[in-house]
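Notes, Module 5: Reading structure tokens.

Key idea: the token line is not a picture. It is a compressed description, and you learn to read it the same way you learned to read a sequence, by spotting repeated patterns. We will look at two proteins. The first is printed below with its tokens.
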Amino acid sequence: MTRYKARIAYDGTDFAGFQIQNNGRTVQEELERVLAKLNSGHPVKLHGSGRTDSGVHALAQIIHFDLPQARDAEKLRFALDTQTPDDIDVLSLELVSDDFHSRFNPHSKTYQYRLTTSRANNPLTRRFSYHFPKIVAFDHMVAAAQLLVGTYDFTGFTASGATVEDKVRTITQADVVRSGTDEILFIFSGNGFLYKQVRNMVGTLVKIGAGKWPVTRVSEILVAQNRDLAGPTAPAHGLCLMEVRYDDEINA
């Protein structure tokens, strides 16, 4: 068997998430359908660097899969890209060693959340940005986000459906920046994120930015490890997986 690694992008609006499930169309399902066609009808199991929830987008999701024989990487990429639906793009593809695993090889992820603050919602960004025009304490959001940087138990920012027991994660970047006059970007990098963690952190920061909570609320949530203290889960459509970087790439 020959192992391939690919970088894909997708508009998550019409997907029930990345991973195959019973309640809707998924990115994995669409890709595996095309891979089976390219593999003479034989099923091909695809693995991703992680799941994205229903409605969440990706600019650089990483996947891997095995085929019985070596193929020209660019021809295979082109075949995948042209036969998948328009809301999925296969950006790059390469042969990798048999021990590469998109999920289990050590890596970091970067997520970006877009917030539109204009008085009226913009119809051209509504599928990819959460409209919230009531930010009055931008600097407080910036300061509060920095309190998330470090290694902590993020139980307080985890949704109730989380299945993992170890909720300790390391966040290396938590920036809140303006992009133009009517957009705010929340950028988070770390060695892994829990179920809906990024959206729960954004929901908390937005409450702080709206002047409802003090900056110290973030520290209180981390100490108490109580989800009830955190803000609402920000809508999925504002979130995008921007980058997945493997440790061997960083150290190369």
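Here is the second protein, with the sequence above and the tokens below, as before.
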Amino acid sequence: MARKETAADAAEAGRLKQIALTYKMTRKADPKIGLVLAAVGIVTLGVFLAIGFLIGHPIYLGILGLLLAFLATAIVFGRRAERAAFGQMEGQPGAAAAVLDNIGRGWTTTPAVAMNRSQDVVHRAVGKAGIVLVAEGNPNRVKSLLAAEKKKMARIVADVPVHDVIVGTGEGQTSLKKLRTTMLKYPRVLTGPQVTATNDRLRAMGDLLTNMPLPKGPLPKGMRMPRGGPKGR
């Protein structure tokens, strides 16, 4: 029994430490986060207390307001923390791959299926919407990488729809924070077995990672492809 309590206490301490770390990281990008959270909590609790006094049940409404104030604060904190995280990742090589890794069930992602020496990269995600090629880097250069990958897809999986996304903040590009939403909006046209078959065919084809291991998440700034290494295909 004591061991279970110790494990539970350790898990709780770990969660509190993670929340504190997330708050510190968020505050660096969003200095007003503390004031915003306090305002949300106070306003929510105040509204329910006012209603409670009006109807003659301040205690009941106060307790309900306290719970909802905590919930509203947690929701606002989560959204602003996510926004701050995306803001810090925006523009970093490999940031899109980190988002794809957390897109959710039903998707199989392969980072850096094509890359050039300027760190322009194309990642691939396969799901019921088909194949999505996600490019990040110089808009003009990644277009040639995308065209080469699309040509390859046409030879290997001609019966599967292929979508392409260029991550960025310019015209015609998709921002990092909207990447997941954009991909989930694509219509689902493949069945589970078709997705599996598509992944098998692409795996048999091989990709850049077969010959060059890359770290997970955003790539270190200043990293360059080795001379003589594979270029975008």
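Summary for the second protein:
- Residues 91 and 100 are 15 Å apart (CA to CA).
- The chain has seven helices and four strands.
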